Structure formats: structure tokens, C-alpha cells
Amino acid sequence: MPLELIIVAALLAAASGLPSLALPRRSAWGQRLSVFLLVLAAAAGLAGAFAGLSAGASEALVLPWPAVGDSLVGLDPLSAFFLVPVFLIGALGAIYGLGYWPAGKNPRTSRRLALFYGLLVAGMALLLIAREAFAFLLGWETMALSGFFLIGLEDQREESRSSSIVYLAATHVSTLTLFGLFLLWRSVTGSFALERAASMSMGAMNAIFLMALVGFGIKAGSIPLHFWLPGAHAAAPSQVSALLSGVVLKMGIYGLVRTLSLLPGIPAAWGGLVLSVGAASALFGVVFALAQHDIKKLLAYHSVENIGIILMGLGVALLGTSSGKPELVALGLAGCLLHVWNHSLFKSLLFFGAGSVVHATGTRAIDRLGGLGKAMPWTAALFLVGAVAICGLPPLNGFVSEFFVYLGLFDGLVSDGAGLAMAAFAAPVLAMVGALAVACFVKVTGVSFLGSARSPEAEKAAESPATMLGPMYILAALCAFIGLAPSLLAPVLDSAIACWKGPLAASATGAVANELPRIGTLVPLRQVGLAAAGLLVIAALTAFLFARGTRLRGGARAPRRPTWDCGYAKPTSRMQYTSSSFARGIVGMFAWLLRPKAEPERIQGYFPEEARLHGEVEEAVLDRALRPAFHGMESLSRWSHRFQQGLTQQYVMYILVALVLLLCTLLPFDRILAFAFGGLGVAP
Amino acid sequence: MIDALVHVLLLFALPPLLLGVIGKVKAFFAGRRGPPLLQAYRDIAKLLRKLSVFSETTTWVFRAGPIVTLVAIALAGFLVPFGAPSAPISFAGDMILFAYLFALSRFFTTAAALDSGSAFEGMGAAREATFACLSEPALFFVFLALSKQTLSLSLADMLGASSGTLSAAAMAPLVLLCLGLFLVILAETCRIPVDDPATHLELTMIHEAMILDHSGPLLGLIEYSASMKLLVLESLFLSLVMPFRSGVAWIDWALFALESLALAAAIGVVESVMARLRMRRVPYLLTGALLLGGSGFILLVR
Predict the structure, then answer these.
(1) Which residues make Cβ contacts (< 8 Å) with residue B199, sequence separation at least 6?
(2) Which of B100, B113, B141 faces A393 most closely, judged by CB atoms?
(3) With DSSP H G I counted as helix, E B as strand and the rest as coil, what are the percentages for chain B, rounded to 5?
(4) Which of A432, A548, A592 to mutate to test the interface with B (most CBs of B within 10 A)?
């Protein structure tokens, strides 16, 4: 039954864009109808997913597919776990789009948006329930291609066009790698079905692992395969950015977790590799985020960071598998999976918040904002909630999943094993990532929402409509819920990490228990929740008592004066610290990596002219490695241009020459030679 | 129950005295008599009675900053043992909560600073956020080493147990870790050589620059939570270097109070005999702390 619900939901989502195609362009009804269909799909999908999660068992269904033979779809707790954010964020994003991208104001794009948005959700649902390579790839490509059309939605803008092309190239490299992966899978196991392989040679396993790491890593955006991500996620409309960052990236994680859970054994080196890739993604992702001045690009780089944290959790789980420690597997996998949910919640919340800012001011440049908290109090407060959550701070949800990963690392250290002790070095890295994330989100929150307005656009800002705020309330409430009551999630996590029973049993040597421990017995979830709740309650109480106490003494009449600014009489908003100046110290520390470019104009004389300072940080992989490499290839292949002039006559001539040459092969060369040389009197 | 009560009493009553001791020691080195030992209590009490002035640019975040900071640091104070072998709140992994509570207070302090829209406060906030990126991992190296050494995952066990189980081989890494931790304490509590709490030059300040616009009761709260932060971090350090405990609760509490005052005096000496580092040198000092912690950890797990 749950599986049928998911299939119905996927079909509804795929069809959600169709009604608006039949209606006039400016009609709001097409959009409303498609949102209604998506919400309906989400209701069915979430019901199915939660039913699948609580059932714990997997169910499968054979769908006839004439072209490639029968196709399998199925639902197990792991699929169900990933289906939850797909439908939740999908529906919330569609509702948000009513206010953010109304059909009346965007007649050219809104129908396309509705169509591909629905297909994106449906594609993800399909790939999650696929139990066979063809269905998986069908879902994968539907997702990838609808993503392309959504990123390039505003194709009148150069930025959208170029980032969607980069995205298309990257996602096709990923798909190509997956083709290789599944072909190898077929040749080793004898079928395209995604079922546990009983045994496999070491070389084949390594090849499959590496192809999965690259193919799914491109989609997930782990460093250095993240190059397509910041541009693409910044160019798309905000609810699409939320879906791309919050959910689509997780499909890469799903693919990796699923593939690894099907392999017969896990060597120790894999865990180390995944953990290192994760740590590098987390650290470099946040460092690059700090250097951004564009609010959406900054958030996109933060996805790289969070994917890194997710991969670190997976790395801990892999190390636990190879060393036969079930508690490490449970902690790492629970951290990985819970962070998947958490990141989809707070990243969507932040992208919705950033979208509200863009909606109100028309700019994404952080340094042109400021003081929005007064004009948009709710957006500011909700963005702040998202910022606290993404930094992994208590009392919100980010803390819980990072807590799992930390605990896994500490646990590995305490329970001995030299390799696990080295893995513990990831803990200080994670701590540094946390501190950098705090710096980054204080920067973006403080510079955008606090202080005073830096530009006329920011001064004229107004609060967003309820259709945009509503989804943000829901997301913020969910962030708080997971942070305050993590123990309620324990059963869900327990049934989702059960997918790892197989690999653990295969790796466990002899006496080691291969039963996965319950997450509630490993992590003091109740205490974590109580501490978070206590923190919130005591802070609220203190604030209340404090406000009361000072009001009794006339605090309500507290005078308002200009900012003191050390006695400067007329402070202006231009004197505030900007995002660039805030991040300058850290950008300086990481200058070897970021190589910031600044073009200062020299200030001369006692009464200098107006001067400008422009600074930016390039995307390291795309701008410094890939673009130069492709330009090199282009100039190498330029000599072939002389044959490619685009003249029809020339091509006809090529065809003729080729034909003549081919006909020449039919000539009896030996007889001609004999005739020619025989005439000279030479013996044949 | 009594344990918890005494803990609460120490946590809430002792901190301003530490500031008094530091002030006295610095005055002694300068050849002055200095303010009375209890001056910090009087200052905070006076500030709490005063009226506030708020900047026109500020929002609720500005007022939330000091309150969240106080609550977060007080909660962190419940996680560390004060001389006694246990802490009021203790569970597996509480050291992570401990570190992240400090991060939470930092988030709100720096956000409140940016809310004033002042260049100086933005500068202080940027510095605070930058330097924390180095001191936080250093703190985690200390936690990792302690957890490895005592095979436990909670702060109370790590710090309480470290007294009896020290072997000679564990001493060398411990010395490195203590040095690193001391530098972290100096940085986190904004003391010389990282920051100068007594300077009058706004351009060179970190913590004091962030609170330039706070006034009245909120300023009182900030001063109070700063001193509490000092006590909480000191207790971490003291459990490492002072493993002598009598086992009798009352003596241990008294001993802890005396030790923390002595450590405050030591900080006062450091403040008196050293000059503040140039701002661009501070990251090198903190990198030093990070490397000390890392080397100590490697020595331990080698």
C-alpha cells in the first residue's frame, strides 16, 4: 500500500504542470492548480513514506516495461527516508512560488516552471523507488534534465544560460559514469537489478566504489566535483534553489549509500577516503562560502559544506563496518541520514529567506542590503532560526546530527584501533567548520538584516506575503522540533539504518555482533533534547524577567539615540562593516586557497577623488582548472576549423572525396601493379 | 542535591571575584593600590540599576545577545565539575554541547554587535569570529586527548578521572595540551596578549569593541557573563593541572575556589608582564595553541 501511494504521488507530481499548459499564460489558476496537485502529491507521498518507515520491511512491485523487460520498483525504509524531504520541500517550495513567482508577473516562464518543477519531484521519487538500473536512470535523467530547464529558466540572463550549460555538462558526466557503473554491475552480478551481490572480486568492487564516488559525488557536489553547483543554485528561482540544494543533492548521497549497501564487503580504505573527502568538502565549502558577496551563492557553497558533513558521517559508518563495530555504523549512518533531513529543512528555509530578500529588494548582493530586520521582521527572525540551525548550534536540529557525527568520531577513538584514532582528526576539522559557519552566518545575517540600510533598494523593502512566509514557518518549526525532541526520531533512524545490516554482517569477523544497536541506546537523545529545551526555556524566561525588571524601573522609556560609534556625531550606513570587511580576516587566513582578487584604486592627495574597491573570489575548480583546460583543448582543436567552414559545397566535396577514396579500395591493386611492372619486363 | 547547590552557588557567586583578583594583581605590578577586590560586584550591581540607551538602528537581536550569552555560558557551567568528581549535568558527548554553547553565545554576541551598525563593533565582531576559528579546534584536540586518556565520553568523567590515572607517559602530552588550553583561555576570555580589556583605543579591541553600544543592565549582564566564562574555562584547566583532590567534598570545593583565584592571579601576572600582540600576530599565537593541542594528541595516540 505505501508503495502504491508513492507511485500515485509521483504521477500526480509529474502531471502537476500540465493544467497550466492548457490555460492562458497569465492565468493564476494554472499555477494554483499545479500547486494543489503538488500538495496532494506530497500528502500521498508523505503518508506513503512514513508508512514505509514505520513498517520497516521492504515491499516490491513488478511493472511491465516492454522495451527493457519488466522493471522493479520497491520501497524500503532507506527509500522512504529520502522520499520525505522530496515531497515536503517540493510542496512547500510550490506554495512559496505562489508569492515569489506569480504567474501574472511572469507569464513567459511560469508555465515552464510548473511543468519542470513537477517533473523534478517526480523524477526524484522514481529514482528513489527504483530497484533496477533502467528505472533508476530514467528517474535520474528526468531529475537532471528538469533541473537544467529550471536553472536556465530566466534564459534572457547571461548568468542563467552559462550556469545551466555548465550544469548540463556536469550532470551528463555524472550520468555517463553511472552508465559505466551499472554496466560493470551487470557484467559482475549478471543482472541490472539493484540487489545485494553475494561476492565480487576486489578489483570490481573498487571500480564500482570509485565510479559511485565520482558519479554520485558530482550530483552531491562534494569537493572537487562541486564546480557546477554555486552558479547553478544561485541562478535558479529561490524555491528551485531550495529544492536543488535541499533535496536534489541528497539524491547523490542516496545513490552512494544505496550502492555501498549492496556491495559484499567494505575495505577500510574506503571509509578513510570518504571521511577525507567529506572533511575537505566541509572545510573548503565553508571557506568559499565566507568569501562570497552574493547571498544565494553563499548559501550554495554552504551546501558543499553540509554535504561534507553528511559524507563524514558516511565515512564513520564505513570505518565502523570495516572494523566490525556496529555502534560506529549506527552513529555514523544516523548522523549522515539525519543531516540529510536537517540540511533539507534549514537550507530550504534559508533559500526561502534569501528569496524573500531578493523579492523585496531586487538584489542578491549582501553589501547592498542592511537593516532589513525592521522592514521584514518575520523574514529576519526566520532566517536567523535557519542560520542558527545550519551552524549546528543548540537548541536546533543541526546540533543533533553533528552531535551524532562527533560522537561517532570520539567513540571510534575511545574504542581503539589505530585507523580510527587517525579518523578522530576529523573532529577538530568539524569544530573549525562549525566556527567558520558561525562567522559566515553572522556575516550574512548581520549584514543583511541588522544595522541600517546600505542602499535605496534596502530602504524600500517590505515584508513578504503570507504564501512565502507560511512555508518558512513550517520549516522553522520542524527545525526546532528535531532539535528539541530528537528522541522522537530514534525509531525512524533505527529503521533507516537497518539497510546497513547486510554490509555489516558481511564484514563482521566471527564473534563480532552483527546486530545494529538502537540509536537511542548509543546517544543520550533525551538529555540532548532536555538540554536544548532547557536552554530555550531559560533564555525565554530570563528575557521575560529581564524585560519586566528593567521596565519597572522605567526601561520602557529607554531613550533611542544614534549609534554612539565612539562619539562620531553623524554615523552613516556606509560606515558599517560590510560583508567583505567582516570576512577579510578569514579570507586572509585562507588566501592560499581562495586567492582573492582585489582592484583597489590608489588614493592620492589631500582631497582624493572618489575611489572604488572591487574584490572577488573565483570558483577554484571551475575558473582555475576546468575553464583553462577546456580553453587549451579548444585552441588545440582549432586547426580542425579549416575543414569546418560551414559551406555546403565543401561538405558535398568531402562526401565525394570520401566516396572516391572508398571506391578506390575496390580497385585490383595487385593486377595493376603486375601490369605496370610486368610491362617493364620484371618477373611478377 | 547539596553538590548541585554548591555548584550553582560557586558558578553564580564566584566569577566577579576573579575579575577583582586580576585587577589587584595588575595594580600591584603597576605600583598602585587598585580598586577593592569586590569592585566588580559593585559595578555589575550599579549597571543593573541604571537605565538603558538603545541605538536607533537596533532590533530585538541587540537585546537578545547578552541574555542568550549569559544563559548559554551558565548552562556550559553546569557541565564541568567544580572540584567535585561530578557535574550537575553529565551525559555521553556533553563536551560537544559545551563547545557549541560557547559558539551559540558567540553567534549572538557578534550578531548583536553588527546590529548597532557601528564600524568599531563590526570590527570587534569580525575579529571575534575569526579568532574563534582557531581556538575552537584547539579546544577539541584537548577533548580528544582527554577522552582517549580516560576512555570516557563525558566532561565530568574526563576531568574528574584524570586525577588518579596519570602515568608518566601521559604527562608529556598533557603539558602540551595544558599550554594550548591556557592560550585558548586567554583568547576566549579576551585577555592580554590577545585582547586588552583595559584599553582605551577602540581600534585595538576585540571584546570591548563589540559592546561599545550596550549600556545599563545589558552591559551589566555582559560583564557578568564574561567573568562567568572565565570561571568555566578555568575549571576546565584546573581539573587538568591540579589533580590533587582530598575526596572530602567541602575541602575540594574550597580548594577549587582558591585554585581558581590563584589562576586568576596568574592571568593577572601574564597581563602585567606581557604586551598585547599586534592584531595580525594573534592568529599565529592561536595557531600555536592549535599545534600544541594537535601534537599532544598525536603523542597520546601514537
Answers:
(1) B205, B208, B276
(2) B100
(3) 75, 0, 25
(4) A432
What is the C-alpha to C-alpha distance for residues B18 and B267, in angstroms, rounded to an integer?
A: 10
Whether the CB-CB separation of A286 and A305 falls below 8 Å is answered with yes
Number of domains in chain A: 3
Q: What are phi and psi of B53, to 5 degrees?
A: -120, 130
Question: Tell me: the pLDDT tens digits for A179-192?
Answer: 999 999 999 988 88
Residue for cell digits 585587577?
A: B23
Nearest to B75 among A421, A452, A534 (CB): A534
What is the Cα Rg of chain A in Å? 29
Straight-line distance from the first to the last Cα atom of chain A, in angstroms, rounded to the nearest whole number: 84
For residues A273 and A168, membership in a common domain is answered with: no
**pLDDT tens-digit series, residues A77-114:** 999 999 999 999 999 999 999 999 998 888 888 999 99
Q: B147 vs A564: CB contact, 8 Å cut-off?
A: no
Do A440 and A485 lie in one domain? The reply is: yes
Q: Which domain holds residue A360?
A: 266-546
Provide the grid cell at A653.
566535396
What does the alpha-carbon distance between residue A402 and residue A291 come to, in Å, rounded to a whole number?
24
Handedness of CA A567, A572, A575, A576 (dihedral sign): positive
Least confidently predicted of A594-598, B114-118, B162-166 = B162-166
pLDDT at A604 over 90: no
Q: Contact at 8 Å (CB) between A385 and A349? A: yes
Candidate from A451, A528, A538 with C-beta closest to B57:
A451
What is the residue extent of each domain of chain B?
A: 2-301
List CB contacts (< 8 A) between B298 and chain A: none
> Can you give the pLDDT at residue B150?
83
